[in-house]
């Protein structure tokens, strides 16, 4: 005995749904390549001129040595083997090669993001950090930085596990660096 729903058997309904789905797919198939090429063209049309990144060692392109220098400390990332694999010399990065921000910049057709606090260790003299131009971006990230200000940790007698010393290079400090130093040189309006 067959179950009938609105005059049609369940098997007939399933066949009709499958046929309708097949018709829709066949009708859409010529459009799929066009839709894909339109999406790719819109991605190509999107153009980025700069990258500004905040964070810790995952995006620190060389600020850490400058911070260590403030405390007259030698940062190990200024010595081999850091940087040897890709750059052939120490770069002030907390890795031996490139960071994810380098791959993002490459994908967008931009140069590697320079560190905000000064020329990267061992960088050529044409570094944007040396001539003060950050039109193509800057990394404000510092290895060991935290999301919370150092006062939070001091008020609780805590030192962040990632911090090598009690320095405030937190997210709010990095945003302040951008607001007070970079934004005025990059933006023409006061807003």
Automatic annotation (TrEMBL):
Mind listing the UniProt keywords for this protein, alphabetically? Glycoprotein
Name by which UniProt lists this protein: GDSL esterase/lipase
What InterPro entries does the entry give?
GDSL (IPR001087), SGNH_hydro_sf (IPR036514)
One Pfam family this sequence matches? Lipase_GDSL
Cite the source lineage: Eukaryota, Viridiplantae, Streptophyta, Embryophyta, Tracheophyta
- A single MF term (Gene Ontology): hydrolase activity, acting on ester bonds
Q: Does the keyword Glycoprotein apply?
A: yes
Q: Which family does it belong to?
A: Belongs to the 'GDSL' lipolytic enzyme family.
